[in-house]
Amino acid sequence: MGLSPMAELCLVCEGEPNSIDATILKQVFVSVLGAGISIESGGGIKGTGPIAAFLRRQRGGTVAYVNDRDYRPRDDAERAFADGQNGFLWRRHSIENYLLHPLVIRSALSRVKERFKPRANAPGWLAALPDDTDEISDMLRACAQSRAPEEACRMANHRLWKELPKSLGRIQKRNPPLDAVDDRIAPILWREALCQEVKRVSNSAAATASCMVFSRQNAIRHFDASFDEITAESYIGEMEFLIDFHGLDLLGELRLRVSPGRNALPDDRLVLGAAAEYEANPLLYGKDDFRDLANGVRALAGLGPVGGP
């Protein structure tokens, strides 16, 4: 990981240095908000917190991190914004969800058309790209309806694990531990440690298997409830799926519908479109998530907020 010069404030995001996460945060925090926060990339969700801690130790200053909400409840993100800690969650499923607003899509497609405009022999598929937000919205709704079964499965799976008692489901491979003893080289002690570890895993697996949370009936109940929720007329009509669905997968589905066989929605055009539309209307997404995140990081350092709309 290449480290940029230390600023007073730093935010670690998921992804690699040139990922959508870092690119859009730099575009918005620097060019739009002027938040005075440098952006570093932390890889996957398990890396952001440790890397933030590492940067804090190595370089000082205030270092926070932000992760995708994924399939956690929306309230989890609100709590992360309000608890005064240095870990935040996006209010939407992931950073890609912020690229899926119909106005952002229209702006990105317009930029693609502008790129080809000087050419006399512009490709024929260019004229078929939608430029009406209602048409784009209908495309997004169709994508959501197509993806609803898989999304319901993922949501239900998350809720099943959330419902599982904390004492269960903790089955993972680990090296058998051994309490501090004088003779740590005695084979009999390590043999017994292995037996105790096998017993622990077996007991945990048996208790988890017998728990009614992981019954077929409960799985069906959760799936049906999730599917009914995300296919409800109001949920689809009001485009709530833009908040909760897997953003990258939804974007992939949209790309196929907009222009099959071609990527008419490249990442760079989407990021520029999102930054431009957000700058024009900071409440584009309902709540001003980017400003709230910037202000949350600044508050950790005892600084005032960036300017509001």
The total of beta strands comes to: 4
Whole-number tally of structural domains: 2
Q: What distance separates the N and C termini?
A: 35 Å
Mind describing the biggest β-sheet?
4 strands, parallel
Helix content: 55-70%
| Sheet with most strands: strand arrangement | 2-1-3-4
SSE arrangement, N to C: EHEHEHEHHHHHHHHH
Strand content: 5-15%
Q: How many H/I helices?
A: 12
List keywords for this structure.
alpha/beta, 309 residues, single chain, four-stranded parallel β-sheet, 2 domains
Strand and helix layout:
Blueprint: E1 9-13, H1 20-32, E2 37-41, H2 45-59, E3 62-67, H3 74-82, E4 87-89, H4 102-116, H5 133-163, H6 187-210, H7 216-231, H8 233-237, H9 241-244, H10 247-258, H11 267-280, H12 289-300
Parallel strand pairs: 1-2, 1-3, 3-4
Helix pairs in contact: 1-11, 4-5, 4-11, 5-7, 5-10
Task: Give structural notes.
It contains 12 helices and 4 strands. It is α/β, with parallel strands linked by helices and 309 residues long. The chain has 2 domains: 9-91 and 287-300, no CATH class; 98-164 and 214-280, no CATH class. It has a 4-stranded parallel sheet with strand order 2-1-3-4, with helices on both faces. The two termini are 35 Å apart. Residues 1-7 have low confidence and may be disordered.
Gist?
The protein is α/β, with parallel strands linked by helices and 309 residues long. It is built from 12 helices and 4 strands, in the order βαβαβαβααααααααα. The protein is 55% helix and 6% strand.
